[in-house]
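Sequence and fold
=================
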Amino acid sequence: MSDSSQYCVVITRPQAQAVIWAQQLAAQGFATATLNLLEIVPVSSEEKTRAIKNKILDFDLYQKAIFVSQNAVEFGMQWLDEYWPQLPIGIDYFAVGATTAKKLADYDVVVTDLAISGNGGMTSEDLLRAPGLQQVDGEKIIIFRGCGGRGHMAEELRKRGAWVEYCELYERRLPAQANEQLHKLCEDIARAQQQYLLSVHSGESLENLLAVISEYPTWQQEQLRALPLLVPSQRIAAAAQAAGFNNTISAENATDAAMTDALVRYSRDH
């Protein structure tokens, strides 16, 4: 039987989100460390910026707008505020997850439905079960997201007869300081009395973690892969295990609450 004070959780989220989760973990007695593996930046190329502007100018032609994340809301509403000080009427808004819906509410946008399954899930699959997205034949739908996300939602909505377009607003990058942070983290782990746990909130963060680790000596890679790794789904757990992380902890979803609950259960059982 163990307790949370014996663990130090390595948070790999972007800085703003990392701070919020660190506060929640501290309230549960966990120590935290930071390894920033994901940086969110607005698209900067002329081609991508022009594509966004064209979709924003035509925003009143859509019947439904879907926001996949808080970042999608933040960047999307910045564009909409610039060209649509008063949002056009007749558009239904949808959000993937309660946090995304709350972010929309900050802009006085009320969602028609949001993706929350019976177990608190917050995926595209959950949102596709929303009543308002079942009969969409002939409708125009715009999905606000980052570059290079999964295409499942658009594919499924097109099967239902909708005309679907993506408005890709931001890019995810591996921060330049990630290698330096990992070097310091390895030094801290070597001296630590606490058990360190790694965490990732997405498949992309896992990919970036593997990329940074791959630059280290084999013995050090093995040490890092031996650490417990908290992930937000069984799908990402399988990917982590295939990459050599044999001690994975699966949360029900990627919300901070679900990730914290999984850690609390783990600390009680080990």
Summary: The first helix runs from residue 15 to 27. The longest strand covers residues 140-145.
